């Protein structure tokens, strides 16, 4: 059995064409089913649904043989746990593309705050990534960990800035925030458990090759 870990939503949807290239069709729709283990048209391949940030954990500890995870999640976890032992990352799948950015209220002068060496309060789900980014710039920050709705933080006075993902910019615009700095291009990677790669080499190699052939331009 090959177990593939995916998160519901965009990663699941954008992985479907890659699975199709490998001749794999998922037999249930995660949007309508409450099941967490989904069968496919191939009796020896199944999909498990986990939180986006749990995909590397499942693959690293062998709960899944492989998975699809955003570079944002992989980078954050690598910083938090000093690398990602046991995880092989053979492919950039070029799906779920966005960027990691700093955003503030329109009336916050980010450039001046940085120039003056002020301490700024930054709210984010990506505390380790943000810590590294601001340390590299020599900017002093107080980090506030949030788990969602980051855009609210500058609007309520919780923080001066946020570090979050931006794609179309629509979410920032709807909340009257501006992107003041973009510092990391994000897409999703295929992650594979290294022990599984040895034990199930032929099947996993065939899957990796099929995925590689179907990566969008
Ligand atoms: N607006 C976006 N456009 C394109 N890709 C995105 C966007 N937002 C997030 N992503 C990418 O898709 C991945 C999954 O995002 P998704 O919104 O499905 O989960 P999440 O809500 O961030 O995760 P969790 O359930 O763990 O809170 C992210 O890790 C990121 O790599
Ligand atoms: O620039 P945009 O195209 O507006 O995309 C950016 C938004 O996308 C992500 O949220 P998502 O849609 O994944 O919501 P969720 O984290 O609540 O699932 C991210 O956290 C931003 O809020």
What topology does this entry show?
Blueprint: E1 2-6, H1 10-21, E2 37-39, E3 45-49, H2 55-60, E4 66-70, H3 71-80, E5 87-92, E6 98-105, H4 110-115, E7 120-124, H5 127-137, E8 141-145, H6 152-156, E9 161-166, H7 170-174, E10 177-186, E11 188-193, H8 194-199, H9 201-213
Parallel strand pairs: 1-3, 1-4, 7-8, 7-9
Antiparallel strand pairs: 2-3, 4-11, 5-11, 6-9, 6-10
Residues 148, 164-171 line the site of 1-O-pyrophosphono-5-O-phosphono-alpha-D-ribofuranose (PRP).
Keywords:
217 residues; alpha/beta; D-Maltodextrin-Binding Protein, domain 2; 6-stranded mixed sheet; 5-stranded mixed sheet; 11 strands; 34% helix; elongated; binds adenosine-5'-triphosphate; binds 1-O-pyrophosphono-5-O-phosphono-alpha-D-ribofuranose
Account of the protein in words:
It is a single chain. This protein has 217 residues and is an alpha/beta fold. It has 2 domains: 2-96 and 187-213, Periplasmic binding protein-like II (D-Maltodextrin-Binding Protein, domain 2), CATH 3.40.190.10; 98-186, D-Maltodextrin-Binding Protein, domain 2 (3-Layer(aba) Sandwich), CATH 3.40.190.10. It has helices spanning 10-21, 55-60, 71-80, 110-115, 127-137, 152-156, 170-174, 194-199, 201-213, and strands at residues 2-6, 37-39, 45-49, 66-70, 87-92, 98-105, 120-124, 141-145, 161-166, 177-186, 188-193. The strands form 2 sheets. A 6-stranded mixed sheet has the order 2-3-1-4-11-5. Strands 8-7-9-6-10 form a 5-stranded mixed sheet. A hairpin with a 5-residue loop joins strand 2 and strand 3. The mean pLDDT is 96. It binds adenosine-5'-triphosphate and 1-O-pyrophosphono-5-O-phosphono-alpha-D-ribofuranose. Residues 148, 164-171 line the site of 1-O-pyrophosphono-5-O-phosphono-alpha-D-ribofuranose. Heteromultimer composed of HisG and HisZ subunits. Pathway: Amino-acid biosynthesis; L-histidine biosynthesis; L-histidine from 5-phospho-alpha-D-ribose 1-diphosphate: step 1/9. It is an enzyme of class 2 (transferase). One of its GO terms (molecular function) is ATP phosphoribosyltransferase activity.
């Amino acid at each position: 059995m090959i177990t593939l870990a995916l998160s519901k939503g965009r990663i699941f949807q954008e992985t479907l064409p890659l699975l199709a290239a490998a001749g794999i069709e998922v037999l249930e729709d995660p949007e309508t089913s409450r099941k967490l283990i989904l069968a496919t048209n191939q009796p020896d391949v199944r999909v498990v649904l986990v939180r986006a940030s749990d995909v590397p954990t499942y693959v690293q500890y062998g709960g899944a043989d492989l998975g699809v995870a955003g570079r944002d999640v992989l980078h954050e976890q690598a910083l938090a746990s000093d690398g990602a032992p046991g995880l092989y990352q053979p492919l950039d799948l070029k799906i779920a593309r966005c960027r990691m950015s700093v955003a503030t209220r329109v009336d916050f002068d980010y450039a001046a705050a940085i120039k003056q060496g002020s301490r700024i309060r930054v709210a984010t789900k990506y505390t380790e990534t943000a810590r590294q980014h601001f340390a590299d710039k020599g900017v002093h920050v107080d980090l506030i960990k949030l788990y969602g709705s980051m855009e609210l933080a500058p609007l309520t006075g919780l923080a001066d800035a946020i570090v979050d993902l931006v794609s179309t910019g629509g979410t920032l615009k709807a909340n009257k925030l501006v992107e003041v700095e973009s510092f990391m291009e994000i897409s999703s990677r295929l992650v594979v458990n290294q022990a599984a790669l040895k034990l199930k080499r032929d099947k996993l190699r065939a899957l990796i090759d099929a995925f590689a052939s179907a990566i969008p331009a």
